[in-house]
């Protein structure tokens, strides 16, 4: 017997492999400074936990509608719409067991085998995985490094569009590099989507993780709401990574299809957890506000630690909880050509664990520089400072 040939095209989230190496190193008695995974070591706000407990006690432990309970769909429609200056109803919302399922279901809804889908690279590796596994052609576009952070390579995006292109994945407030579009840049993306009649997946996982200014959404731009599906997740905003709860928000026809996939795949998202998210959205906001303030302090410590290292200089990102420093000079100093070797050596010699550019899509042929990614969501300020000091000693040797 043989397994399906299509499985050879299925990728994975390789950051979890880094977690295994870090855990193995820790099991040998080492203190690991964990910058590798975008998990959050902060407690879910108490009012959300209490709402989940009440829902359990009230017997909300059975099946519920595949598209989600009406109360939550309406709450998300109001919340997402009001924050973006547009109007949604419950019919525009499909509840999901996390944000990640939205990616695969969106692709299934809008892409035929042989179609092309544009996706950010470096970017969340599940984009590439799902496009190719479902028989599409994954067409990457990249970023350029500026003194203010990273900007979209608009030339690459435009050149990547052909008569086979059906969709564009756009992750503003980006993982792994923290890129944040200006309104002008976002308008250029929207212009391409309109010109070539593309569906857009707006991965808004970090929309509420903002340290300055107000976030902007491509769905708000003229002509974009009717072609954009928003990926929503409560993992980051409410420190609910393990609760597995998210949503797809968009035009009714595609949301109806996504909800049909729900029925085929998981029947429904856990009932009592949905009740808890209603409280998260409409209840006390002090918990989420405190989470962002804690992340801000961690960001400042991590940026200061990296900028203190000879050979590294990074801008201060205004969103997400990721840093993506250029380590080309460090690689030259260490006489290395493989950035993953730098990652492995750093764990052994400094106990600091991080991911590299190679964990976020296949590197493009045009790439010359080397990058590593730090997530500061799962490590306290004191350990950030200690870890960065140890990393500085190793990198400068």
Question: Which properties best describe this structure?
Answer:
397 residues, alpha/beta, Aspartate Aminotransferase, domain 1, Aspartate Aminotransferase, domain 2, 13 helices, 14 strands, 41% helix, globular
Write a structural description.
There is one protein chain. This protein is 41% helix and 14% strand. It has 397 residues and is α/β, with parallel strands linked by helices. The strands form four sheets. The protein has a seven-stranded mixed sheet, sandwiched between helices. Strands 11-14-13 form a three-stranded antiparallel sheet. The protein has a two-stranded parallel sheet with strand order 1-12. β5 and β6 (149-152) form a beta hairpin. The longest helix is centred in the C-terminal third of the chain and has 22 residues, at 286-307. The N and C termini lie far apart (53 Å). The mean pLDDT is 96.
Q: Secondary-structure blueprint of this entry?
A:
Layout: H1 15-27, E1 33-34, H2 46-57, H3 70-84, E2 93-96, H4 100-110, E3 116-120, H5 125-133, E4 137-141, E5 143-146, E6 149-152, H6 154-159, E7 165-170, H7 183-195, E8 199-203, E9 228-233, E10 246-249, H8 252-265, H9 271-282, H10 286-307, E11 322-323, H11 328-334, H12 339-350, E12 352-353, E13 355-356, E14 372-375, H13 381-395
Parallel strand pairs: 1-12, 3-4, 3-7, 7-8, 8-9
Antiparallel strand pairs: 2-10, 5-6, 9-10, 11-14, 13-14
CATH-scheme architecture of the largest domain: 3-Layer(aba) Sandwich
| Major beta-sheet overview | 7 strands, mixed
Q: In sequence order, what are the helices and strands, one letter per element?
A: HEHHEHEHEEEHEHEEEHHHEHHEEEH
| Spans of at least 5 consecutive residues with low confidence | none
Structural class comes to alpha/beta
Count the helices. How many? 13
Largest sheet, spatial ordering of strands: 2-10-9-8-7-3-4
The general outline is globular
Highest-level CATH class of the largest domain? Alpha Beta
From the N-terminal CA to the C-terminal CA, the straight-line distance is 53 Å
Helical proportion, percent range: 40-55%
Please state the average pLDDT score.
96
CATH topology assignment of the largest domain? Aspartate Aminotransferase, domain 2
How big is the Rg? Answer: 21 Å
Beta-strand portion reads 5-15%
Number of strands: 14
What's the CATH H-level superfamily name of the largest domain? Type I PLP-dependent aspartate aminotransferase-like (Major domain)
**Total domain units:** 2
């Amino acid at each position: 017997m043989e397994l399906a040939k299509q499985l050879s095209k299925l990728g994975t989230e390789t950051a979890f492999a880094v977690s295994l190496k870090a855990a193995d190193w820790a099991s040998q008695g080492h203190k690991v400074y964990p910058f590798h995974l975008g998990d959050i070591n902060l407690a879910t706000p108490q009012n959300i936990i209490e709402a989940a407990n009440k829902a359990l006690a009230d017997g909300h432990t059975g099946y519920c509608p595949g598209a989600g309970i009406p109360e939550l769909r309406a709450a998300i429609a109001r919340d997402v719409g009001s924050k973006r200056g547009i109007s949604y109803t419950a019919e525009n919302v499909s509840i999901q067991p996390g944000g990640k399922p939205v990616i695969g279901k969106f692709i299934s809804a809008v892409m035929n085998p042989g179609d092309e889908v544009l996706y950010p690279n470096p970017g969340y590796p599940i984009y590439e995985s799902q496009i190719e596994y479902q028989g599409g052609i994954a067409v990457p576009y990249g970023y350029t490094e500026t003194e203010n952070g990273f900007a979209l390579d608009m030339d690459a995006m435009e050149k990547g569009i052909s008569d086979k292109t059906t969709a564009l994945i756009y992750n503003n407030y980006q993982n792994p590099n923290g890129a944040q579009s200006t309104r002008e840049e976002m308008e250029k993306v929207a212009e391409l989507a309109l010109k070539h009649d593309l569906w857009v997946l707006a991965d808004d996982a970090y929309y509420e993780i903002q340290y300055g200014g107000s976030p902007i959404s491509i769905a708000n731009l003229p002509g974009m709401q009717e072609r954009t599906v928003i990926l929503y997740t409560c993992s980051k905003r409410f420190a609910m990574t393990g609760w597995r709860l998210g949503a797809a928000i968009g035009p009714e026809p595609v949301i109806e299809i996504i909800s049909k996939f729900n029925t085929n795949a998981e029947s429904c998202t856990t009932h009592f957890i949905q009740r808890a998210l209603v409280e998260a959205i409409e209840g006390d906001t002090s918990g989420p506000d405190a989470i962002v303030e804690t992340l801000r302090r961690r960001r400042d410590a991590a940026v200061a630690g990296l900028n203190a290292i000879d050979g590294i200089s990074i801008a201060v990102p205004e969103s997400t909880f990721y840093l993506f420093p250029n380590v080309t000079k460090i690689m030259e100093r260490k006489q290395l050509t493989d950035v993953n070797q730098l990652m492995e050596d750093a764990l052994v010699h400094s106990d600091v664990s991080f991911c590299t550019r190679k964990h976020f899509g296949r590197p493009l042929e045009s790439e010359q520089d080397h990058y590593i990614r730090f997530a500061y969501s799962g490590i306290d300020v004191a350990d950030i400072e200690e870890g960065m000091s140890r990393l500085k000693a190793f990198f400068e040797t």
